[in-house]
């Protein structure tokens, strides 16, 4: 019997996926996939940070109110927020060090998000798959691009 906890999400959504929902003309594949997997999706704390940081930088006005309502009422109510834990920090440090060893240093925030996905055995969903190529070379990170409707991708050794 499989030890499966229905509370555990399978997909960790990057900010470019979550923000697609409120675009005037969102990508059909992204909206379809979120609809199909909604209860199986989560966001990382750094993704929430990116969204809130963008919100706080906006001038007061209708769009800022709209975005704030979207973040509070839709994002935070719909998606569990996965924390940057001790396990994630251990994975994160190893990813960054190993990527540097092969001459491909990775951005702190991207590797932080990847480490949360790895620590929780999740597939990272992002439009910016190339940002995670070096991380895939030094880890088992699986990445999907729902803009293309792609299946999980693992870097070739």
Question: Could you characterize what this model shows?
Answer:
With 157 residues, the protein is of the alpha/beta class. It has a single domain (11-144), classed as Rossmann fold (3-Layer(aba) Sandwich). The protein has seven helices and five strands, in the order βααβααβααβαβ. It has helices at 15-18, 28-37, 45-57, 62-78, 86-101, 108-119, 133-137; strands at residues 11-13, 41-44, 80-82, 123-125, 143-144. The chain has a five-stranded parallel β-sheet with strand order 3-2-1-4-5. Helix 7 (133-137) links the parallel strand 4 and strand 5. The longest helix is centred in the middle third of the chain and has 17 residues, at 62-78. Mean pLDDT is 90; it is low at 1-6.
Keyword list:
7 helices, 10% strand, globular, alpha/beta, 157 residues, five-stranded parallel β-sheet, Rossmann fold
What is the secondary structure topology, with strand pairs?
Blueprint: E1 11-13, H1 15-18, H2 28-37, E2 41-44, H3 45-57, H4 62-78, E3 80-82, H5 86-101, H6 108-119, E4 123-125, H7 133-137, E5 143-144
Parallel strand pairs: 1-2, 1-4, 2-3, 4-5
Helix pairs in contact: 3-4, 5-6
Integer average pLDDT? 90
CATH topology: Rossmann fold
Number of helices: 7
Number of domains: 1
- Encode the helix/strand succession as letters: EHHEHHEHHEHE
What best-fitting shape do the alpha-carbon axes yield?
globular
The assigned structural class equals alpha/beta
CATH class: Alpha Beta
What's the arrangement of strands in the largest beta sheet? 3-2-1-4-5
Distance between the termini: 33 Å
Counting copies of identical and different chains, the oligomeric state is: single chain
Q: Give the biggest sheet.
A: 5 strands, parallel
């Amino acid at each position: 019997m499989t030890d499966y906890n229905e509370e555990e999400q399978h997909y960790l959504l990057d900010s470019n996926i979550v923000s697609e929902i409120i675009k005037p003309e969102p990508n059909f594949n992204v909206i379809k996939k979120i609809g199909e997997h909604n209860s199986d999706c989560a966001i990382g704390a750094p993704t929430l940070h990116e969204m809130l940081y963008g919100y706080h930088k906006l001038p007061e006005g209708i769009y800022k109110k709209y975005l704030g309502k979207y973040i509070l009422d839709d994002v935070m109510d719909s998606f569990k927020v996965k924390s940057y834990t001790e396990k994630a920090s251990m994975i994160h440090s190893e990813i960054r060090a190993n990527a540097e060893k092969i001459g491909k240093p990775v951005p702190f925030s991207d590797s932080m998000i990847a480490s949360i996905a790895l620590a929780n055995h999740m597939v990272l969903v992002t439009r910016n798959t190339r940002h995670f190529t070096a991380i895939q070379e030094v880890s088992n990170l699986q990445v999907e691009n729902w803009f293309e409707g792609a299946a999980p991708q693992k870097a070739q050794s």
